[in-house]
Each structure stands twice: as C-alpha cells, then as structure tokens.
Amino acid sequence: MTNPNEIPEIKGAEFARARERVGMSTADLAKMASLTTSHVEQIENGESSCFYSPAIKFVAAKKLATFLGLSKPSVLYIQRVRQQRPQNRKL
C-alpha cells in the first residue's frame, strides 16, 4: 500500500470462514499472529476502531491471510480510485 490512491478492501467474511474451517477460535488465531482478539474480530467484522490507521489494519489482515493459508487476492482487494479532473465549463 504505497500509493495513497489505493484503498484496501478487506473481505472479512472470508477470514472468518477460513478460521472456522481450520477449527480455530479468534483468540487462537490472534495469539498465533501476535495480535489481539479484538484485532482479529474487527478484521472479520469490518470494524477498525482498535487500529491506528487503515494501513495498519491492512498489514494485520495480510498477516492473518498468511497464517490461514489464504491467497491475498481472494481476501484483500485494492481498489484504484481515479481522481476526477475539474470539467472545463463554458460560462
């Protein structure tokens, strides 16, 4: 996430399904990834109050994806936002 025009979208439900599929609790996964249970829960539920910034949440989600064996493109989506140019208007 080096470009400020890239906004990460985290597909939290995919994280929850993968975690449940391997029989882990949010606490187990958090401990394995050196995160808090709240971090894991907020990634899964789309919340972000315990993260300092969206970038930090994105890094934590990438870490969880690795631990769960998920491909990053399946759970992390980068949306390119185009900056709109002002239209030339005739007065």
* CATH fold naming: 434 Repressor (Amino-terminal Domain)
Q: How confident overall, as mean pLDDT?
A: 82
Outline: globular
Question: Mind telling me which CATH architecture this is?
Answer: Orthogonal Bundle
CATH superfamily: lambda repressor-like DNA-binding domains
Q: What order do the SSEs take from the amino end to the carboxyl end, as H and E? A: EHHHHHE
Q: How many domains, in number, for the residues?
A: 1
Instruction: Enumerate the strands of the largest sheet in spatial order, edge to edge or round the barrel.
Output: 1-2
Strand content: 5-15%
**Rounded to an integer, what's the Rg over CA atoms?**
16 Å
Q: What is the CATH class?
A: Mainly Alpha
